[in-house]
Write a structure and sequence with these properties.
CATH architecture: 2-Layer Sandwich
Strand order of the largest sheet: 1-5-4-3-2
Helix content: 25-40%
CATH topology: YaeB-like fold
Low-confidence stretches: none
Number of helices: 2
Distance between the termini: 21 Å
CATH class: Alpha Beta
Number of strands: 5
Shape: globular
Strand content: 25-35%
CATH superfamily: RelE-like
Largest sheet: 5 strands, mixed
Length: 98
């Protein structure tokens, strides 16, 4: 299984990491490492995330206030959203291709 990020999800991660890095040195790198740990786990066990609908699941990061919204097939784990938990729920729905 390979990992992909929706372009907007990748941008969300980059912007969040930059914001954290400006606040506290190395905090942005720790966020990126946490996302890597989460995606490594999801690549091994894609079913562990809570179901959002028939195609999407969510995984809450343990150390940061972010949720990964993702889809998984036998070939691809695709992170659709890297959502800060204070954002309006469902703001990302329009980016999902259905």
């Amino acid at each position: 299984m390979r990992l992909e990020f929706h372009p907007e999800a990748e941008l969300e991660l980059i912007e969040a990491a930059l914001h954290y890095e400006l606040e506290v040195p190395d905090l942005g790198e720790r966020l990126e490492a946490e996302v890597r740990r989460a995606t490594d786990l999801l690549l091994q066990h894609p079913e562990i995330g809570q179901s959002v609908d028939s195609d999407l699941r969510r995984f809450v990061l343990p150390r940061f206030p972010f949720t990964l919204i993702y889809s998984a097939t036998s070939e691809i784990l695709r992170v659709e959203v890297v959502a800060h938990q204070s954002r309006l729920p469902g703001y990302w729905r329009t980016r999902i291709d259905r």
